[in-house]
Amino acid sequence: MDLNILIGQLETISAGYAQKFDIDRTPDWFLLKLTEELGELIQSYLKYAGQARVNGVSQAELKRDLEEELADVLGMTLLVANHHHIDLQEAISRKWLQYLENESSV
């Protein structure tokens, strides 16, 4: 999966969502939406980990929900970065992948 293509697809979907529901995608909106999705991920994880009521939902369904909430958080993270013209590939290389070059500094 090419990250730039994915970001473009997410941007198209997000812009369509905003237009449909008359939402102004301000910098604050992007970050607040990411926070909302993170809250949903936490709720999903608690259910998956057996730390919240599941109301008869199967473990397979709980896992699928967890996967989808992780996808939402990743998607919104990519959209926040895109909105602020942040190259996440470069940032990840600088922040994380530097340790591959010098494994003794991990």
Descriptive report:
With 106 residues, this protein is an all-alpha fold. The protein has a single domain, classed as MazG-like (Helix Hairpins). The protein contains 4 helices and no strands. The protein has helices at residues 3-20, 27-48, 59-83, 88-101. The mean pLDDT is 96.
Q: What is the end-to-end distance?
A: 28 Å
Number of strands: 0
Write down the overall mean pLDDT. Answer: 96
CATH architecture: Orthogonal Bundle
Gyration radius, in Å: 17 Å
CATH topology: Helix Hairpins
Shape: flat
Task: Determine the structural class based on helices, strands and strand pairing.
Answer: mainly alpha
Unreliable sequence segments: none
Strand content: under 5%
In terms of topology, how is this protein built?
Layout: H1 3-20, H2 27-48, H3 59-83, H4 88-101
Helix pairs in contact: 1-3, 2-3
Structure at a glance:
The chain is mainly alpha-helical. The protein has helices spanning 3-20, 27-48, 59-83, 88-101.
Key terms:
mainly alpha; Helix Hairpins; 106 residues
